[in-house]
Amino acid sequence: xxxxxxxxxxxxxxxxxxxxxxxxxxxxxxxxxxxxxxxxxxxxxxxxxxxxxxxxxxxxxxxxxxxxxxxxxxxxxxxxxxxxxxxxxxxxxxxxxxxxxxxxxxxxxxxxxxxxxxxxxxxxxxxxxxxxxxxxxxxxxxxxxxxxxxxxxxxxxxxxxxxxxxxxxxxxxxxxxxxxxxxxxxxxxxxxxxxxxxxxxxxxxxxxxxxxxxxxxxxxxxxxxxxxxxxx
Length: 232
Ligand SMILES: N[C@@H](CCC(=O)N[C@@H](CS)C(=O)NCC(=O)O)C(=O)O
Fold this sequence. Notes:
This is Glutathione S-transferase. Its EC number is 2.5.1.18. By secondary structure, the chain is of the alpha+beta class. Helix content is about 55%, strand content about 5%. The protein has 9 helices and 4 strands, in the order βαβαββααααααα. A 4-stranded mixed β-sheet has the order 2-1-3-4, covered by helices on one side. Helix 1 (about 15-25) links the parallel strand 1 (about 5-10) and strand 2 (about 30-35). The longest helix has 27 residues, at about 90-115. The model has no long low-confidence stretch (mean pLDDT about 95).
């Protein structure tokens, strides 16, 4: 039974946290958002709720913590099964959506981070070209998954829309900081209109971070990560 208060431990700038919030919005679940100030240290509640990774987001349902954003989306879909569904109902389509979501997390987003923290032109160029290759794959995947409709999930936002769309803010920041265009009409026309639809969707627009604020945050964060990487 879906009883008990719902809380999300997160931070405004985290793409992974957005995923949990979008899924809750889609299901019209009320929840309390607890902002974790990671730069000031992790709260006791976070350390207790995610002792393995100590990362956000954490969804707390009643007294039960759920960790890892993609698992959280699936938990929300299972726990509040009324329409709209987030995962596709067809087993093959579910497998495909999970495949691309794992690809985005394990391969594609690390290339975005690598561009942000690169201190040499060569490394930056390599990261940008990996990002472009990934976007070409996602353009093709969009054609197959959407079947001519507006989202990867069809008529409505689904699992892969949430997994990919949550990275759009950081993608735009990377474009801006580096003076490049990656999702554009010439290279990825379907993703251009998908991104517009995704960002203006009622379940998304209030949690999509302000672009200028995120850009300033990125300019402050990337050098810090670069410095940390250099000390390892
Ligand atoms: N695989 C995790 C990634 C979560 C993640 O990297 N969260 C970051 C914030 S964007 C975090 O908590 N960082 C703190 C740390 O690494 O100690 C998920 O999908 O939930």
